[in-house]
């Protein structure tokens, strides 16, 4: 199947119509397990279906009388370029460090709050681009209703019958054309509808599923109030233009202009009247929806969104719907079809997706296995939809956000959440999706250099636990959350992984200066532990955990030491690969790395979260963060082969923390148990992750409320159960639960620029194909035994069961 999909995708450039049809025929066999489907419309935002092209996203509700498309544009943040570094920080820093060394933590916390936290103390939230509301007339007695999202084509569809007429609505976000396309058809009749725009409100899904239900569940939504900066007008025949300005936040004025343009093409009467488009007597209508802002970079808002939306919608409108659809499907398949995954036997895809979620924790093993495979593919679909070259990185909600001022600002929380968004990108065959993170890091290196100099008197660059579109890098929110200097350093993990999985020299040339700058900051700011235990960071916290009531501030938490150890190691590896002749700098890194305080095991046998053995007395014994287990996953510093005592200590910590937490934290626990080879434990956590407490009906992760990192972290954890690459080895089926006796994964990427197809039967590897550079020697391990393969002159090695011999 994978080969057929790739061949078909290659035809797209020459025969777009034929290729689109061929791709869909090739995907038919997979459609049962690559489709989300429902028997009723979405009554809440977390039941709607997401589409996106990396820059523009939409949530499709599938409602009959009033369809709602809730729109997003990736740069629609509040405010504008701003500086937030606290000028009092550098003078306060020596005193804060002295207070921490003297264990006067409360005084240190108060000083950080007054002198080191950013001004303003919060960052800019991500907002919505508003709603398109389509009011349909004459729809009564609806039957045969179904709505669906086909992951293989990235098309959301709604189908139903009313008064003998078969209505179909298809919606997709086209990456090649840069627009959202909606096709309305009435087979055996006509359709009449009015299209209008509603300005976004504050996000209202709140902290529970019930929040906002009063207006979420309404079949008809009212227009509501709108700001004076908003204008809605006709912009040519059958075209509506919406123009406005973003909101202010935390005293920072709105500096972005934005525009939406909707152009309708069809066989009925289509005209713009006032602030609406009216369609009468049509058998088919295609809507082309373009969105843009004036954002150019984190310091430049001079773009022309009106020109951008006019150009995009005009260019797309001259093409037929069949052409737009075929180009979209071909472009999507070129990336999505790289990886296929089957686990177990037949699942229960005949059940609607919301029913599968509702029953997941009690479901049969085969159903859980099938849902796990779907969950991985859904995460891949989401990443493709919300993070593509040229756009913004995936934020806390990817690209989908219902309104202004969402929970946690829906921005970039870089003490775990943004990093988790990209955990599956490399292994799951979507390395292109990381490009927005590279550009964010390049911009952060500029703003973070100012923060390093102003706050710490240091060289290099630093970012703390959050950032936004404007690449703010100072600590925010308060000492117990924001006073953590390793956010930028952890982002470098995403950049390193892209290099390690792909070995692209051009990528190396771009990321080496970033890692070198991040490392240089710690060269200047690490301090000696007063008790002689090694070099540490100070001030810092272990995100976002208190070691005593109301106090998180400390020196040298385990996670900092682990991240800095990795950062220095990555930088040294890239220094050698790049040919950089700065040997003095490399020698400095090697010396400092060897002096970092090591990981420690506490009195309870646990891996210590702090340099001191405070774990047993910490206020939250089941805290959602497991920051000090970074060294286990996503790092490989602590592993089964080399550090078994520390692995045992990590397991003690995890058992204390518990298996259930917020969505993303549950996903991290899944990945950790998988990395440690505990397949049955990982499967038990996965059941909880797939169930209704942690997954919404549309498969969005339920933090609650929605955060997309749980989707991505969960997918990474599932792949970790099947294969791992660390320590110079490829580990086959390292955490395979007994219930998953058979399956196959094709197109899985590995470190060292390798790709693997793996089939297993009766819980054992049955067939294996490795691809990479000719002559590459690959060490494989399975169940504590190993073997080595050398790729032939074509860069391929194949083995079947009789030749998969591990000694």
From TrEMBL:
Residues 724-784 form the Alpha fucosidase A-like C-terminal domain. Coiled coil: none annotated. SUPFAM superfamilies: Six-hairpin glycosidases (SSF48208). Residues 1-21 form the signal peptide. Keywords: Hydrolase, Signal. It comes from the Bacteria. One of its GO terms (molecular function) is alpha-L-fucosidase activity. Residues 321-722 form the Glycosyl hydrolase family 95 catalytic domain. One of its GO terms (biological process) is carbohydrate metabolic process. Residues 36-295 form the Glycosyl hydrolase family 95 N-terminal domain. This is Glycoside hydrolase family 95 protein. It comes from Duganella flavida.
């Amino acid at each position: 199947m994978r080969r057929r999909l790739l061949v078909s995708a290659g035809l797209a450039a020459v025969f777009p119509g034929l290729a689109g049809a061929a791709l869909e025929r090739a995907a038919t066999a997979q459609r049962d397990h690559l489709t989300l489907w429902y028997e009723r419309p979405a009554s809440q935002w977390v039941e709607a279906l997401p589409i996106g092209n990396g820059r523009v996203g939409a949530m499709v509700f599938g409602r009959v009388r009033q369809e709602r498309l809730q729109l997003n544009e990736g740069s629609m943040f509040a405010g504008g370029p701003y500086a937030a570094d606290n000028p009092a920080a550098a003078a306060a820093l020596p005193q804060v460090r002295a207070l921490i060394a003297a264990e006067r933590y409360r005084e240190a916390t108060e000083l950080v709050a007054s002198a080191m936290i950013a001004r303003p103390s919060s960052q800019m939230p991500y907002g919505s681009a508003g709603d398109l509301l389509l009011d349909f007339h004459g729809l009564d007695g609806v039957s045969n209703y179904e709505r669906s999202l086909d992951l293989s084509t990235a098309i959301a569809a709604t189908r139903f019958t009313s008064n003998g007429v078969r209505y179909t609505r298809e919606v997709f976000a086209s990456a090649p054309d840069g627009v959202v396309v909606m096709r309305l058809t009435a087979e055996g009749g006509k359709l009449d509808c009015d299209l209008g725009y509603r300005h976004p409100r504050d996000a209202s899904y709140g902290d529970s599923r019930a929040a906002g239900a009063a207006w979420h569940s309404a079949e008809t939504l009212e227009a509501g109030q709108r700001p004076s900066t908003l204008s809605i007008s006709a912009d040519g025949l059958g075209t509506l233009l919406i123009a406005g300005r973003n909101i202010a936040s935390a005293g920072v004025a709105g500096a972005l202009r934005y525009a939406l343009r909707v152009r309708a093409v069809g066989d009925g009467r289509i005209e713009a009247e006032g602030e609406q488009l009216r369609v009468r007597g049509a058998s088919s209508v295609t809507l082309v929806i373009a969105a843009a802002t004036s954002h150019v970079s984190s310091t430049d808002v001079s773009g022309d969104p009106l020109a951008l939306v006019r150009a995009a919608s005009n260019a797309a409108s001259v093409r037929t719907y069949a052409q737009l659809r075929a180009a979209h499907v071909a472009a999507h398949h070129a990336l999505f079809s790289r990886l296929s995954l089957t686990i177990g036997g037949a699942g229960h895809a005949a059940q609607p997706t919301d029913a599968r979620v509702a029953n997941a924790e009690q479901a049969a093993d085969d159903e859980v296995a099938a849902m796990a495979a779907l969950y991985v593919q859904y995460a891949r679909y989401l990443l493709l939809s919300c993070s593509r070259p040229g756009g913004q990185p995936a934020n806390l909600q990817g690209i989908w956000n219902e309104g202004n001022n969402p929970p946690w600002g829906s921005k970039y929380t870089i003490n775990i959440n943004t990093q988790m968004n990209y955990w599956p990108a490399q292994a799951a065959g979507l390395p292109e999706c990381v490009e927005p993170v590279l550009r964010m890091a390049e911009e952060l290196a500029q703003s973070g250099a100012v923060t390093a100099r102003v706050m710490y008197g240091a060289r290099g660059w630093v970012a703390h636990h959050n950032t936004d579109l404007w690449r703010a890098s100072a600590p925010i929110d308060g000492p117990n959350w924001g006073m953590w200097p390793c956010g930028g350093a952890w982002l470098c993990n995403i950049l390193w992984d892209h290099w390690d999985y792909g070995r692209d020299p051009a990528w190396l040339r771009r990321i080496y200066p970033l890692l070198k700058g991040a490392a240089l900051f710690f060269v200047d700011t690490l301090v000696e532990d007063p008790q002689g235990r090694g070099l540490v960071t100070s001030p810092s916290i272990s995100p976002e955990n208190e070691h005593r009531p109301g106090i998180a501030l400390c020196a040298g938490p385990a996670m900092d030491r682990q991240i800095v150890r990795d950062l220095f190691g990555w930088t040294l590896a890239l220094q050698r690969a790049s040919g950089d002749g700065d040997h003095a700098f490399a020698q400095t890194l090697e010396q400092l790395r060897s002096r970092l305080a090591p990981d420690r095991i506490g009195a309870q046998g646990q891996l210590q979260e702090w340099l001191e053995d405070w774990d047993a007395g910490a206020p939250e014994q089941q805290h959602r963060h497991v920051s000090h287990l970074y060294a286990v996953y996503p790092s490989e510093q602590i592993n089964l082969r080399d550090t078994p005592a520390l692995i045992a200590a990590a397991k003690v910590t995890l058992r204390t923390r518990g298996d259930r937490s917020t969505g993303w934290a549950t996903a991290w626990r899944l990945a950790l148990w998988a990395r440690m080879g505990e397949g049955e434990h990982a499967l038990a956590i996965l059941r909880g992750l797939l169930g209704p407490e942690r997954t919404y009906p549309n498969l969005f992760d339920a933090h609650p409320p929605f955060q997309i990192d749980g989707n991505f972290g969960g997918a990474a954890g599932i792949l970790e159960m099947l294969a791992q690459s660390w320590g110079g080895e490829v580990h086959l089926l390292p955490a395979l639960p007994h219930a998953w006796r058979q399956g196959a994964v094709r197109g899985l990427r590995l470190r060292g620029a390798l790709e693997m197809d793996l089939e297993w039967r009766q819980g054992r590897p049955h067939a294996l194909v490795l691809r990479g550079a000719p002559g590459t020697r690959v060490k494989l391990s399975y169940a504590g035994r190993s073997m080595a393969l050398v790729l032939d002159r074509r860069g391929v090695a194949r083995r079947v069961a009789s030749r998969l011999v591990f000694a």
